[in-house]
Amino acid sequence: SPELNGRLSHLFFKEMEKKVGLPLADMVEVVKSRKVHYKDIISQPRRIHTTPQWSCILHDKDGKQRTFGPYTMNVERLKPWHTLSGRQEIYYDHQGIRELGEGLPTNKPPIDMVAVGDINLDKAGPKSKVFRFITPHGKWQIHSSFRDHWPMLHMSRGGPTVWLNPDDAKEIDVEDNNWVEMYCENGIQVVRAVVSHQVPRNMAICYHQVERHVNVPFSPLAKKNKFSGLRGGNNNASTRILMNPATMIGGYAQFSYYTNYWGPSPSERDHGVIIRKMPLGKEKKPIYQEKDLDKVPTGETT
Questions:
Q1: Which own/partner pairs from 139-148 qualify as long-range (CB within 8 Å, at least 24 positions apart)?
Q2: CB contact at 8 A, 52 and 2
Q3: CB environment 66-104: b (16+ within 10 A), e (fewer)
Q4: Is the dihedral of CA 218, 219, 222, 224 positive or negative?
Q5: Distance (Å, rounded) from C-alpha 65 to C-alpha 202?
Q6: Whether the Cβ atoms of residue 263 and residue 244 lie closer than 8 Å to each other
Q7: Reported pTM
Q8: Which of 9, 56, 79, 200 lies deepest, with the highest CB count within 10 Å?
Q9: Is residue 106 situated within a structural domain?
């Protein structure tokens, strides 16, 4: 890939120069002969090159590293923005967009997940609460296989977590580092609670993309409901994609699809879950091994 092969990055920029009519390949001249091999990335994290795939400039002409800053290539090197006009656009003059009332930036309230059936309040216990569930990019990493190495474990906790407001946590008898279950009609997650004043009321923040899962125990709620998968799921376990008609236009400048995602707005990142403190049974600890499945409680014992 051009991110790890300087020669490819230089070649790709040469092709881009033909399209935009601007000199760009000089940005990677200093790393033209640099390659990052598999043995390099399994030994320690490595910096990638500046490439046409991203909008940031990651190093200067002398090879000195720069902090990741999106759209620096568009601002500093005048590479056209990926829009119909090549400029930043606020108003979308497209019939389909206008009919949906989204010609200009529009604020819309979150979808009522109870009304659409994703949250069944009949399954909410006495010490549980409905939260607005969001999944920002990883707080200390993104798409990294080094999340649970020594420095990262001293900056965070390792394993899956959800961040809750102290007042919300108190309502459901949850203290910092307690195990909780987050669930709705789509699935169940088992995570530790991070209780922090940084979190707004009624919101659950689950930083996404925990690539190497550690400490994921079995879910008492999954056992109680006789689900086939009993181990608590990842950050997508409780989500589903809700298609937005505005992302289905396609074939029109910045509205064209890209293979990474179906449309520009991941709508499943903003939905709802019920959260309760996870019952731990008589031994007061979560169960991880298949041989101990009979010890997973199904009641409210904590």
A1: 139/207, 141/209, 142/209, 143/209, 143/211, 144/45, 144/211, 145/211, 145/212, 146/44, 146/45, 147/210, 147/211, 147/212, 148/212, 148/214
A2: yes
A3: eeeeeebbbeeeebeeeeeeeeeeeebebeebeeeebee
A4: positive
A5: 40
A6: yes
A7: 0.76
A8: 9
A9: no
- The answer to whether residues 38 and 162 belong to one domain is no
Rounded Cα gap, residues 171 and 186, in angstroms: 24
CB 72 within 8 A of CB 56: yes
Q: pLDDT tens across 198-248, in order?
A: 999 999 998 876 655 566 888 888 888 888 778 777 777 888 877 778 777
- Flag whether 100 is in a domain: no
Do strands 270-277 and 179-184 pair parallel, antiparallel, or not at all (unpaired)? antiparallel
In the chain the first and final C-alpha atoms are separated, in Å, by 50
By residue range, what is the domain housing residue 38? Answer: 6-76
20 — phi, psi (to 5°)?
A: -100, -15
The CATH number for 242's domain is 2.40.40.20
142 and 267 share a domain?
A: yes
CA–CA gap between residue 140 and residue 153 (Å, rounded)? 10
Number of domains in the chain: 2
